[in-house]
């Protein structure tokens, strides 16, 4: 049965269309943007605590920003998928108001977000 994913200040919730109760599928992450990927069931969540991806419609989430060289950039605000490449912008958690754009970084990944690069 199809589902709807919704990003909130409390995480991501999934509502199956044949049920009346939503389920929390990504807890304790204030979601700024939830972006659908190019593959079926693929979504990206840009959060104030990191960057996440699901390949199965929200049942399982993987954190994507733990292996990057500049791990302190973990406050993710926006992201888009364009022609199979995921682009996102990130800030140091202490600079998350985006007032000083010199402190941010734009990352891209052509492999489903597994290796975000500048």
Characterization of the model:
There is one protein chain. The protein has 118 residues and is mostly beta strands. It has a single domain, classed as Thrombin, subunit H (Beta Barrel), CATH 2.40.10. 0% of the residues lie in helices and 50% in strands. The strands form 3 sheets. Strands 4-5-6-7 form a 4-stranded antiparallel β-sheet, with no helix packed on it. Strands 1-2-3 form a 3-stranded antiparallel β-sheet, with no helix packed on it. The chain has a 3-stranded antiparallel β-sheet with strand order 8-9-10, with no helix packed on it. It is globular, with a radius of gyration of 14 Å.
Question: In a few lines, what is going on in this structure?
Answer:
With 118 residues, the protein is mainly beta.
């Amino acid at each position: 049965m199809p589902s709807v994913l919704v990003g909130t200040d409390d995480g991501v919730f999934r509502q199956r269309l044949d049920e009346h109760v939503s389920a929390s599928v990504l807890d304790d992450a204030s979601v700024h943007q939830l972006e659908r990927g190019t593959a079926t069931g693929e979504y990206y969540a840009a959060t104030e605590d990191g960057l996440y991806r699901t390949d199965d419609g929200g049942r399982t989430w993987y954190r994507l920003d733990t292996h990057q060289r500049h791990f302190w950039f973990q406050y993710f605000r926006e992201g888009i998928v364009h022609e199979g490449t995921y682009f996102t912008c990130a800030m140091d958690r202490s600079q998350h108001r985006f007032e000083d754009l010199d402190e941010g970084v734009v990352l891209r990944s052509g492999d489903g977000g597994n290796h975000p690069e500048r």
